[in-house]
Design goal:
31% of the residues lie in helices and 15% in strands. It has eleven helices and twelve strands. It has a five-stranded parallel beta sheet. Strands 8, 9, 10, 11 and 12 form a five-stranded mixed beta sheet that branches. β8 and β9 form a beta hairpin. α5 runs antiparallel to α6 and α6 runs parallel beside α11.
């Protein structure tokens, strides 16, 4: 099957043989490689931002951490990689690990997740879990481990199915804001807009994203605008990067103490759903957002017979139809689920 040529994010790349010295530029890419049974072929990683799952901790720890932050070009080349994998477009730039074309000229093929072909730009047509499953199968093909790819895809599909089953109990169309971070400026929270996985999860659950009309998938907005849109529920990213205001508790403390946000109905009634930050970013953890948010909405009373804490109109009770589960066709033409 080699040499294998593939097109990814409008860049054509060729691997001459199954990679044996891969470098992953961030944690989520590393975890996908480990889940595919490829830890022994990864010679370096970087940008570890979240707790590593216990069942792969030992394998993860055996992979050299080339830097705590963003990997630079010179450090990357020192690892002598034969493949580079990134979940973020900003990591494959001249300022960081190097541009994809430059690395290809050096004989180092790359793969960039289709969720972030252009930094922070909304995915045309919307991000889907089919894209995540297709990425897993593409990486499995590049490394010649197709059976492992199919198995991981099936595991991911099972989580999606469980979440959608829970979502069947949700009534109405609750209005959500996905609050990710205030790392740039405390006065301009970064929230989920259209074209990313939070938008897709929202739609799968029959809910509404109050910032679905934004121009990017992670707009920085004002608290005035958040309050004016008056979401029913606030989904909080519990980040572990160490930036000020990153944890879910810090976010809740701010929302309850700020003179403006403390007046919001969702804040007054503690209508928060907390999820790990990696659930909002493209990774093998992204599927967990579906059951987590679905269960949160049910627990908050957005379900048949539920009693939500509110001091206002509870909203419509008619339950919209939930979207059917996403499916992906395997490379052999059958369902991967």
């Amino acid at each position: 099957m080699y040499p294998l040529t593939y097109e990814n994010c409008d860049v054509e790349a060729t691997v001459e043989r199954a990679p044996t010295r891969a470098v992953s530029l961030n944690q989520s890419a590393t975890e996908i490689l480990i889940r595919l049974g490829l830890a022994g072929r990864v010679v370096g990683t970087a940008y570890e931002t979240d707790p590593v799952p216990a069942d792969i901790q030992a394998e993860y720890d055996d992979i050299p951490l080339l830097t705590d932050g963003l990997l630079k070009h010179e450090t990357l080349l020192e690892a002598q990689p034969d493949f580079v994998y990134s979940s973020f477009a900003s990591f494959l730039t001249a300022e960081n690990a190097g541009e994809r074309a430059e690395l290809q000229e050096l004989g180092i093929p790359t793969y960039l997740t289709e969720f972030d072909c252009t930094y922070h730009e909304a995915v045309e047509g919307g991000a889907t879990f089919e894209m995540l499953l297709a990425e897993i199968e593409a990486i499995a093909e590049i490394f010649d481990v197709p059976a492992a790819g199919r198995e991981l895809v099936a595991q991911q599909q099972a989580v999606i199915d469980d979440g959608l089953a829970t979502a069947e109990a949700i009534t109405g169309s609750p209005r959500l804001v996905w609050f990710y971070s205030t790392a740039a400026d405390a006065s301009t929270p970064s929230v989920a807009g259209p074209g990313g996985l939070p938008q897709t999860v929202t739609e799968l659950l029959g809910a509404q994203n109050v910032f679905a009309d934004a121009s990017t998938k992670w707009p920085e907005v004002s608290w005035d605008e958040v309050a004016a849109r008056n979401p029913d529920v606030i989904v909080l990213a519990d980040l572990t990067r160490g930036y000020p205001g990153d944890t879910a508790q810090e976010k809740i403390d701010f929302l309850k103490s700020d003179p403006l946000t403390s007046t919001m109905e969702a804040v007054r009634n503690d209508r928060f759903i907390v999820v790990p930050g990696q659930y909002m970013d493209p990774s093998i953890h992204s599927v967990e957002a579906i059951p987590a948010v679905a269960e949160g909405l049910v627990e908050l009373g957005f379900a048949q017979g539920g009693s939500r804490g509110t001091d206002g109109d509870a909203g419509p009770e008619a339950s919209p139809s939930r979207r059917s589960r996403p499916m992906i066709e395997s490379s052999e033409g059958g369902s991967a689920a």
